[in-house]
Write a structure and sequence with these properties.
106 residues, mainly beta, five-stranded mixed sheet, two-stranded antiparallel ribbon, globular
């Protein structure tokens, strides 16, 4: 599987660390810079207690755009790769959650 950089953003956190967001897809194209909201991202870690190993983590990223970034949403589990760097070191990596549409009906 080949991934291509499609979107990126560089910014500083409140502790003055340099952060870089990179979003990769399996379709080739030109990389574009995206703007993030002031609360750009949050990362959550899941474990039963601090003495147990980490089970899962998840990142929420708040992108500010007038365009619909349809190429990052997919039904596949590993179609969109997300990487977050802090001070040029890989800090977090994962995949975008697949799009699942559901609507209640009567």
């Amino acid at each position: 599987m080949s991934y291509y950089l499609r979107y990126y953003s560089d910014f500083k956190d409140r502790d003055n660390n340099s952060l870089r967001l990179e979003i990769y897809t399996q379709t080739n194209g030109t990389a574009s810079e995206v703007k993030l909201l002031s609360d750009a991202m949050s990362i959550e870690y899941s474990a039963d207690s601090i003495f147990q190993p980490l089970r899962t983590s998840g990142a929420s990223i708040n992108i500010f755009t007038e365009d619909l970034l349809t190429n990052i949403f997919s039904g596949g589990r590993f179609d969109t790769l997300v990487k977050i760097y802090r001070n040029s070191t890989l800090f977090w990596a994962g995949y975008a959650t697949p799009n699942i549409y559901s609507q209640s009906y009567v």
